Structures are given as structure tokens and as C-alpha cells.
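Ticket 4471: requesting a sanity check on a complex prediction with guanosine-5'-diphosphate. Repro inputs:
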Amino acid sequence: MNIHEYQAKQIFAKYGVPTPRGIIANTPSQAMTNAQELGGKIWVVKAQIHAGGRGLGGGVKLAKSLKEVKQLASEILGMTLVTHQTGPEGKLVQKVYIEEGADIVDELYLGVVLDRAREMPVIMASTEGGMAIEDVAHDSPEKIIKVAVDPAIGFQGFHGRELAFGLGLAKEEQGKFIKFAKAVYNLYMENDAEMIEINPLIKTASGDFMALDGKMGFDDSALGRHPDIEDMRDISEEDADEREASRYGLSYISLDGEIGCMVNGAGLAMGTMDTINYMGGTPANFLDVGGSANAETVAKGFEIILKNPKVKAIFVNIFGGIVRCDRIANGILEATKITDVNVPVIVRLDGTNAPEAAEILKNANIPNIIVATDLGDGAAKSVAAAKGK
Ligand code: GDP
Ligand code: MN
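Returned C-alpha cells:
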């Protein structure tokens, strides 16, 4: 789960990570009132969407008067902001964060992510703040300092010094920076975050460090022990199809390809996607219908898959263990009655009662249902069907 910048900054503040003062607004006049309350002469109006690159897309603007705050807020609220992370369809801006303007001397980068290969969180820092870290990693990887922290010992002085020296910070800056990085590491761990990105982390004229931006993502499986973070969920920012799927106990992730996949078990789903790729096709989604595939879940699965106009064929690959194949075959037939399935459906059922299932599908004699004998056959037939062959 991801949260908005203003919410990440609320968490930062709790852990003593300095941020500019700011107030969230839903309307232009509220934006102006907020600016008045904050005081000062310069404000920043920031679109709140779950995507980075807002600045370049026109979603972050400086205002030099209260009137301008209102004007900019009215332009940004309701706009569909397109950034390199939103995709071409963009995201609707429903909230703006009004912040006091900061006095930027230098822009740095600080992030924490989980390195699965090392099985440790890794802190990343760079002097190249304010630009996409992906570009820095590509063009000048030596400018990113990475320090892995063993969670068993936590953030120690030597981790901090490695970061501070790597950034080439002046002696009087090092202590402040190390304290900053330590607080960020601690809030990452204590909240079961998966990712934190502060870009830019600025140096101000008074020689302090401040988080000017904040992105956080959390481990969904750990949300149960963080009700305060779960409350920050903004479902309007999440993929509507993925949300609907989760209501029916289906794990669904949408992808870019043409072949809809309906599979039971995450491992088999991954294997199915790999096999489709191997056969020269592209999966349109990951969908795990779980252990209890029945007519209703299969119908729901079809419905969600078919919302994607790119889908040219559906590959149903289900292994009948506890759930018997003949029941699934009947479920598929039921599902095609509930939902209008207008693309070829390739069905591979294996396991308990597989021969009976094949018989049921054959006897139903539905023209767009194609029975496959095994995974390779099913994937090949799906790829061919998606290509109109
Ligand atoms: P992002 O584009 O989604 O990553 O949004 P950011 O919060 O990083 O803002 C984009 C850029 O706007 C930053 O890199 C800064 O250069 C600039 N910016 C943000 N807040 C301020 C501010 O208070 N003062 C000034 N001068 N620039 C700001
Ligand atoms: Mn940023």
C-alpha cells in the first residue's frame, strides 16, 4: 500500500525528520486559508497523487501571493496529472498540499528499500537529488551510495558515517545528517515499510536538512499491526480492478499483455505466465483464484479479465487437487452463462477427475472453449488464439 506525500510527512514529523510545515486542502479557497495560516511570503502548491515526477508534469508550483495560491490550487485540483509514473492516462488530482516555501541550497536524495538478495534494508543516498534516481542509477551509478543495515544490529554510527562521507558532507553537517538518516531507517523498520524515498532531501540556508518530498510504500501483509497506517489508505488511488478482485478473494495484478490468465495458486500462476512468454505471447494479468475455484469466482475472474480491452484470449490453467476438475469445468460453463465471454477460452484442467472434466467441456460444445491437454499445449493454443490463428 502506498500513501500520499502529506501523509508520509506526518509520519516523518513523528520521528523527528524535519519537513516544511504544510496543510492539506480539497478546495482552492481552503488552499488559500491554509497559506494564510502558515504565514510567510512563498508557498508551494503540491498535487497529491500516488506517483512521482509531479514537478515536471506541472503538479508542483510556487506561489508568491495568497491570490496566486488560490489560482494555482484551482488549476491543479481536478487536473489529470500525467507523469512518467502514472502512464499516459494520468491521475486525477483531488487534494493539494500547501507548504511554506523552503530555502534550497542543495538537493540530495535519500531512500530505503528492501534488498531481497541481501535480505536486508538498504539505505541509498546521492548528491544527485531532485532528479529521477533511475536516471542517476543508469548514467552515473557511482553517485549512489548504498549501505545495507542488518536489522539484527540496527542503524549504527558506522552506517551513518559511510553515508555522510560518501556524500562528501562538511564536518559540521555530518552529525545532523546521520541523525536524519537514522530516524528514517527507524521509521522504515517500525512501520513495516517496503520503500521510502525522499527526493529531494534539501540543505537549507541555515545549514539544516529537510525532507522536501516523501514517498512511502508498506508491506500489505503487515498492515494488520498498523491500524494508523491502514487509515491512510486512499482507495481512489488504487487499481479499481485489483480492488474488486480482492473483494472476491482473488489476487489480481494487471499487466500489459494480451492473454488473460486464470490460475489457482501463485506458483502455478507464475509458471503459466512464464510459459506464455516462452511460447511468444504476453500475459495480460496475474490472477490467482485461490484454492476454492467455483462458478462464482470463475465468473468474477472472467468479468475482471474482460474489462481489459487488450485481452484477446483467456487461458484457464487449473490444477484440481482438493477442488475437483469436473466441478471447475461445470463452474466454467456456469460462468460463461453469467458473463458474456467473447474471446477464445483455452482450458487446461489437470489433477483429480481431469478426464471427466474434459468430457464435460467437450459435450458442452461451446465454440470458443478450446480444451488443452497440458501446460505447454494450453500456452501454445492461447498464444495462437490471441494472434487470431
Ligand atoms: P515530485 O516531482 O513528484 O518528485 O515532487 P517534489 O516534491 O520532489 O517537487 C518537485 C520539485 O519542486 C523539487 O525537486 C523542488 O525542486 C521543487 N520544490 C518543491 N518544494 C519547493 C519549495 O518549497 N521551494 C522551492 N524553491 N522549490 C520547491
Ligand atoms: Mn520528488
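Notes from triage: The mean pLDDT is 94. Leaving this open until the requester confirms.
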